[in-house]
Amino acid sequence: MADFAKERNWDQFHSPRNLLLAMVGEVGELSEIFQWKGEVPKGLPDWKEDEKVHLGEELSDVLLYLVRLSDICGIDLGKAALRKVELNAIKYRASKNYSTNDDSTAEMCG
Ligand SMILES: [Mg+2]
């Protein structure tokens, strides 16, 4: 990502704030794909191939901006994410019996 930006002289535009706002814009584009569809089943079995391709593109846009933002901020995202998973494992113990009606059941981050 750093090489890609440098080769295009985009470093001048890639401030933390600009990258964050660009990523939020891409989250909006990702949200548009699901907008008005209601709940959809896992695996998206009823979606057309071109819809899934589009979904993959928008997920990638979000990921790429997140990686670039992390790099620009001097954060080792891989290391930070692994640390957070470990913290979440302590916070949300697997031995606890989570109720299906408990809002925290599906919460992976906090
Ligand atoms: Mg996009």
UniProtKB/TrEMBL annotation:
EC number of this enzyme: 3.6.1.12
GO cellular component, one term: cytosol
Catalytic activity line of the entry: dCTP + H2O = dCMP + diphosphate + H(+)
Record-level GO BP terms: dCTP catabolic process; DNA protection
Domain NTP pyrophosphohydrolase MazG-like span(s) in chain numbering: 15-83
PANTHER family: DCTP PYROPHOSPHATASE 1, PTHR14552
Protein name as annotated: dCTP pyrophosphatase 1
